[in-house]
Specification:
Two copies of one chain form a homodimer. Chain A has 546 residues and is α/β, with parallel strands linked by helices. The first copy, chain A, is 35% helix and 16% strand. The termini of chain A are far apart.
Chain lengths: 546, 546
């Protein structure tokens, strides 16, 4: 007796390291939920599907693959946005959706949850994923599962699997399993590109590596470390690449993001005569809204999708092979001559009774970080202020820094801590973003996790006020610190002053048994220096009429 | 100087009766938000875009058109699901999304919020709406606005308008305005169909009207009333049609929904020799999961999309013209011989200290309804229990009874009360659905509305337990009655017994200044008789393997 389609799917998820699947049940997916419950995978209920989508995204960023499992339409279409974010920021999330049984769809009846046609959801997810399938054929189902999971791994982007409910327990066909040959670099092209790159690097006065998101996603942090330690070529990082090298490392130049990042890193990178861009996304936010200036004529640019040196390009080179090739090539070792990192935290001196400001909030948080902290920043000043933080470990800073969907951080901490139980998330989230998804603290409470949530409470969408303000930027004030009373667990703190913050952080550090939530009251128009620069650049566009 | 595109759009919304627009701002839509703020339209901030989508849907069901306004991708894709519901249940919602400026998109840069291409969102909304446009051309923008709003009115389904931020203040071209000729019925076809229908009706022993969702949507409640009062042909209603005729009316047969509805209505309708189906959706839930039995050979079936009598069909007949034609035709007036409605509430006798059960909860709520109550039921036993309620006014029962997306009811009450300020919503919502969107009470608090929220707290997804149970059907218990402490307003009640419920309902009736929330504790496996019948039918499908 062959495995059922549902059982095979679970086996393949396990083989890819998935231990947790996030979602909300529904009648079209209940059968698969039951199979999951009986498997070694733990199903994690969130309050809303959106929370499950964000949690799976964070899980994928840390574990290498994430999975969200929902019902048809009323579940699936709720995670269109979170899947779009995973696509945009290269996070390999497997979306599994239940669906009506194949025999129920004959004659196209008006079954509940149907939108226009039975394939409406499938068509939408084709736009949002790199591979999509409907497992409506037992003969091909196993091969289809293999195909889409391989695509998730290859492109580090989301994939979609629709599972009609009458197929869950149908036996599949193991003979048709395809093991597609592993994608490899063309050896001659790789050799030629490496030879050219090594020549340029060795001839350069001040080469520098700019490392970005794909180093995280392809698990190349060790290789990057080896490359910089072997050659002493310093490493700068982009916003999406933040913490790709642990920041205390002496070869760490700092954050390069045009006007948004470190001024030292900006000068260092932009004056380099040989820029080695590894896995870089050339996005507006990553580049400080195009305030960055990178000269392609001095660049070696390698990603999973494209390789170019100066103004010409090479096909069929894998990022990981190129990085390995650089490590093994005869690149001359240099003397390192970098000053200590500019944002290494000084001891923070609390001024009692002094109101918390954004600038000093991040200094104070910076001195609180420890080796097991994973910082998760929502969009807004949570992110821009967070850019200046000095992250200890590698891949210990998560933020939707390109797609920029508000409401990521709280549910992301659920996914992050399940992916890395030894880490403790420090969540930075504005009040506007918290009100979108913050009640996923319910799921965090249910599964006994203990992130520390810092709500930047400035009574509205602070990022937008300096662009164009109005009542539409206000949000109602909540008593965030009392949410533990609703959920029956958790520890809340209301904070106006630096000494109150110090006491709350200290209490949170020793309170391990549940989440802590810190309601940090900030002045309505206060903002970080980085946000100030950003909104000046953005504001000009918002009000433009041409 | 011609109007700007943004100004013209606002004028057209006002002309269609829109007084409130729901949404969340974002940088790509801020300019239009500012224009809205300066207009007579009130912009209503919700916590999350999902809440805005549901609120606009409810507003559309009552007012005739609703509008949700969001930013690009991170806003728009969050309302894919609510727009799908509006499509599936024929609710005319105008989706307005900000977008990058047309000049910003040249060369396809990686601007924040972009998914795959700049038109990804547009392509997705083409699947979810009956008309979609990108206002990227000042010459055609006014005509495009007219075209999509006309489609919303014609089909009573959602439409999509994407507004690049550099177009908001651009002057449009008033000369190209198209006033498409109003769609009319073909006079000869209409006359022939009416003649045939009237002949069948007059020859019948027991004709009955089955009225559904399109009577609500096309504003034909008055016409239906006139038709039944002129002819004394009784009216049964479907689930989506519930309250299309005010239920105390002597011509009201009751709810017809196969095994889900009233047994009297079922016998009456199924033994009729002439069924007049007006604006009916033949969906699974509407028909009690296909436990209904309607014989097309005895049917006159008219909707906005299709007209058929017995087994033949007519083209180009408008629903409203057909109903008017029936009113004006010489249909013989009959003697009415109906018993009083079976679910007219008796005086409810509270048993002190008796735990609340689902069955008696709905009896107790039924006796609480008054002429200004609008019942809004979420999916699950909130809906199935609610079916037995005796609604006073017309179009005073809202529920996503076909698409069945959990989490509709609380944000819907925001939209409903703004559309009809004289009505007071009574929201029936399960604990699972409440945890999805219930914190939109924040928006309800902000705008000073006063719905009464009844949380059916049975510790999980009660609809799913009888189909297939597992830990995935559990939800964490919240202290729902203490949410007012988080929001700084509102009145909470914790309820275990009938006398506690009576006291809370009485207090809620006189507490007009803010919302009330009643946490009604129910036994985990308790359920309404209707849900019991439904889940038995559904359960067989969930576990089927073939």
């Amino acid at each position: 007796m062959s495995d059922s389609i549902g059982t095979y799917l679970i086996q393949r998820l396990l083989a890819h390291g998935i231990q947790h699947v996030f979602g909300v049940p529904g009648d079209f997916v209940l059968g698969f939920n039951k199979l999951l419950e009986e498997s070694p995978i733990q199903f994690i209920n969130t309050c809303d599907e959106q929370g499950a989508g964000f949690a799976a995204d964070a899980y994928a960023r840390l574990q290498g693959l994430g999975c969200v499992c929902v019902t048809y339409s009323v579940g699936g279409l709720k995670i269109a946005n979170t899947t779009a974010q995973a696509f945009a920021e290269k996070s390999p999330v497997v979306v599994i959706s239940g669906a009506p049984g194949t025999t129920e769809c004959i004659k196209n009846p008006l079954l509940h949850h149907k939108v226009r046609n039975f394939d409406t959801q499938f068509k939408i997810f084709q736009e949002l994923t790199v591979a999509a399938t409907v497992l409506d054929n037992p003969r091909t189902a196993f091969a289809e599962i293999d195909r889409v999971l391989a695509a998730a791994n290859r492109y580090k982007r989301p994939v979609y699997i629709e599972l009609p409910r009458d197929m869950v327990n149908k036996p599949g066909n193991p003979d048709l399993q395809t093991s597609s040959p592993p994608e490899i670099s063309d050896p001659d092209t790789l050799a030629e590109a490496l030879k050219e790159a090594v020549g340029l690097i060795n001839a350069a006065q001040q080469p520098v590596i700019l490392a970005d998101v794909e180093i995280h996603r392809f698990g190349l942090q060790d290789a990057l470390l080896q490359l910089t330690e072997t050659t002493n070529i310093p490493v700068a990082e982009t916003i999406l690449g933040k913490s790709v090298l642990n920041e205390p490392h002496p070869n760490h130049v700092g954050l390069y993001a045009g006007a948004l990042g470190s001024e030292f890193a900006r000068q260092y990178v932009e004056s380099s005569d040989c820029l080695i861009l590894l896995g870089v996304f050339l996005t507006d936010l990553n580049l400080g809204l195009f305030t960055a200036h990178l000269d392609p004529k001095r660049s070696i640019y390698v990603t999973s999708e494209k390789t170019s040196i100066q103004l010409h390009s090479y096909d069929q080179i894998r990022l990981q092979d190129f990085v390995q090739g650089l490590i093994q090539a005869k690149i001359q070792r240099r003397e390192l001559n970098l000053p200590p990192s500019s944002h290494r935290p000084l001891k923070f001196e609390v001024v009692p009774n002094q109101a918390v400001t954004i600038a000093r909030l991040f200094e104070q948080l910076n001195s609180f970080l420890s080796d097991d902290t994973i910082v998760i920043a929502d969009v807004g000043d949570a992110l821009f202020g967070g850019l200046g933080m000095f992250i200890h470990g590698r891949t210990r800073f998560l933020s939707p820094a390109y797609y920029a969907s508000l409401g990521f951080a709280v549910p992301a901490s659920l996914g992050a801590q399940l992916a890395e139980p030894s880490a403790r998330p420090l969540v930075l989230v504005g009040d506007g973003a918290f009100q979108m998804t913050g009640m996923e603290l319910s799921a965090i409470a249910r599964y006994g996790l203990n992130p520390i949530i810092v709500v930047l409470n400035n009574q509205g969408y602070g990022t937008e006020r300096p662009m164009l303000d109005g009542k539409f930027n206000d949000v109602l004030n909540w008593q965030y610190s009392r949410i533990p009373e609703i959920l029956g667990t958790g520890c809340g703190f209301e904070i106006h002053t630096e000494d109150e913050l110090a006491a709350a952080l200290s209490a949170s550090r020793s309170h391990l048994e549940s989440f802590c939530i810190l309601d940090v009251h900030l002045e309505k128009h206060d903002m970080s220096a980085a946000l100030n620069r950003l909104t000046q650049a953005l504001g000009e566009r918002v009000v433009t009429t041409s």
